[in-house]
Amino acid sequence: MSDHIYETLGVETIVNAAGPVTRLSGALMDPEVTAAMAEAAGHCVDIAELQAAAGRYIAEVTGAEAGYVTSGASAGLLLGVAACVTGLDPGAMNRLPDTAGLPSEVIMPRSHRNFYDHAIRSVGVKLIEVGIPDRFSGAGVRDTEAWEIGDAITERTAAIAYVANARSRPPLEEVVKVAHDRDVPVIVDAAGQLPPASNLKRFIAQGADLVCFSGGKVVGGPQGSGIACGRRDLIAAMALQHLDLDVHYELWDPPAEWIDKKDVPGAPHHGIGRPCKVGKEAIVGLLTALRRFVAVSDEDRSRGWIADIKALEEGVAGIDGVGAIASDGGERGIPSLTLAFDRLDGIDAARRFMTGACRVFVGTSGAREGVVSVNPVCLRDGDVEKMLEKIRSVAGDA
Ligand SMILES: *Cc1c(COP(=O)(O)O)cnc(C)c1O
Fold first, then answer.
1. From the alpha carbon of 26, which atom of ligand 1 is closest?
2. Residue nearest to atom 11 of ligand 1 (CA)
């Protein structure tokens, strides 16, 4: 596909070997997704009706009561926490981020803290960190335990926030149990946990009240899109403080699957989620991408990535001054290649990759330990050959 649009802007396209990270513009969208977005852009609809339709499909593929399209997993955390704080009370929605008189604390295992929790804190709640993750300091083997979370719950607790990944402790089911014993909802940040596709249902099946995924990572939806799913009342509370409600009460018809108008005394005004607006193109693009994502098996999805990593590994074997170790990606099914250069540290190698002719952006999480890595998810046809040439030049220039 032509890159003329970027050329006219004077912006160079890159080889993205770091995966669908936000900084490098997320994943690539399939032409079927962009075609659906173009069609969506040519008609107007009632956005709440479109969200309700999207929600029905998201509920079906996640096994949750209800679903919603957000502008990203991060926006889902903001809206989800807001929903847990306000419930369906429109007065409380109007007051946020002032949480006076409302449950105003969110509990999080200390080892789950990360900078996406800005989204949580921006609702006006205080984060309560629990536990000591001494397994990470070399000082011990333990992390936060579920009983410690239970111990921290008070009448001020709005929700428990949980960040899911293969190494998360304590297990989600244990957290859900202590939380539900005290009627506190659990919100799961599962932004990057697709694939495997089975994770669409997994956290809901484990009892999570609300789960947030990114739409712009491997799912292949618009970069600024996300999926939220969970309890109907929480999804309704998210929608009420996200949708534009600049409407006379008599003319307001909220979708029946979320809320019975009789249950709220009035509509809230624009809520705290209003800056996380989602357009019709994004909703349709996300839905189209999600349909494609569930239609393909994890194995088929991985096949091209495995072939790219294998071709790179074989190509690198013939290049002096660089060593490569491939990994199969485990249950995520996203293989990777780790590269170490004999005469370059990881930071210098990454710098050389990202500068000069044909800029390549590699993964740098191991750069301080001397290695860079390749994630094949955002590679385009022909990128493997470009990368081998670049690797030769990075190693040779050393
Ligand atoms: C990517 C990511 C996010 C943010 O997701 P967006 O869809 O970009 O908002 C949040 N949490 C984790 C753990 C992530 O990996």
1. 8
2. 191
How far away, in angstroms, is 113 Cα from ligand 1 center? 13
Rg for the chain, CA atoms, rounded: 23
Mutate to test the pocket of ligand 1, among 115, 116, 223 (most ligand atoms within 8 A of CB): 116
| CATH number of the domain bearing residue 289 | 3.40.640.10
DSSP string, 278-294: --HHHHHHHHHHHHHHH
Q: Please tell me whether residues 81 and 46 are part of one structural domain.
A: yes
Q: What is the pLDDT of residues 246-289, one digit of tens each?
A: 999 999 999 988 888 888 888 898 999 999 999 999 999 999 99
Query: In the structure, what pLDDT confidence band is assigned to residue 397 with cuts at 50, 70 and 90?
Result: low
- Are 256 and 341 found together in one domain? no
Together in a domain, 260 and 160:
yes
Residue 143 lies in a domain: yes
Mutate to test the pocket of ligand 1, among 22, 71, 332 (most ligand atoms within 8 A of CB): 22
For residue 190, is pLDDT > 50? yes
Other residues' Cβ atoms within 10 Å of the Cβ of residue 239: 25
Same domain, 95 and 206: yes
Residue 5 domain-assigned?
A: no
pLDDT greater than 80 at residue 192:
yes
First-residue to last-residue Cα distance in the chain: 34
Specify if 324 maps to a domain. Answer: yes
Residues 327 and 284 occupy one common structural domain: no
My answer on whether 316 and 167 are in the same domain is no
- C-beta separation of 59 from 52 below 8 A: no
Residues with CB under 6 A from ligand 1: 22, 72-74, 116, 163, 189, 191-192, 214, 216, 226
CA of 26 to the centre of ligand 1 (A): 11
Residues 38-48: what's their mean pLDDT?
A: 97
**Cβ atoms < 10 Å from Cβ of 304:** 13
**Cα diameter, the chain:** 74
